[in-house]
Amino acid sequence: MPSIFVFDAYGTLLDVHAAIARHRAEAGPEADRLSDIWRTKQLEYSWTLTLAGHYVDFWTLTQRALDYALERVPSVDKKLKSRLLEAYFKLGAFPDALPTLRALKAKGHKTGILSNGSPAMLKGALDAAGLAGDLDAVLSVDALKMFKPRPEVYALVTDRFECTAADVTFVSSNRWDVMAGASVGFRTCWINRAGMPDEYPDFPPERVLADLNALLTVG
After folding, report:
1. pTM of this prediction?
2. Which residues are catalytic?
3. 51 and 111 fall within a common domain
4. Is the pLDDT of residue 212 over 90?
């Protein structure tokens, strides 16, 4: 029976470390450390601003997080900044992203994205990755001016598809995102690519999958 599958974008469909991967040789031996700090601060800024009742778009936070990461990892040449940002704007997708979306569409399912990303950066990344044509909706928190995991953000999905939360299978590689989806009543799939330990026991995922390919057995 056709269902609604809604994905997180960054880290689930799009590889957030693809930007540094394109410039690994230039970044040097601490490239991975830089990328980890960049991603951590990007999310931290979104959470702290939302908790404080403020909003700055995700692309601006991405730039600020990179500035911080470059200060923390001085071995990486700051002249790489513009090229890293350009690469992030056109991130590559995980190899299983496009085949999974196309297989779901072929089965008659609806597909969408719910993301912290700004509309412009989502368009840039999805177009570059070739995913845009296989999505029925691309939903950005920018419409509400607040970030995940606020429950209001997840209501964008039920409003857009005119459905109940129980009609939605929400897919994310971020365990905190899965927690928030479960808390509003979504069916949830945690894509645990890195084999991380579970957390948030009050809001467990319905399924834990090693990659997106396994999603085709759901529903």
Report:
1. 0.95
2. 8
3. no
4. yes
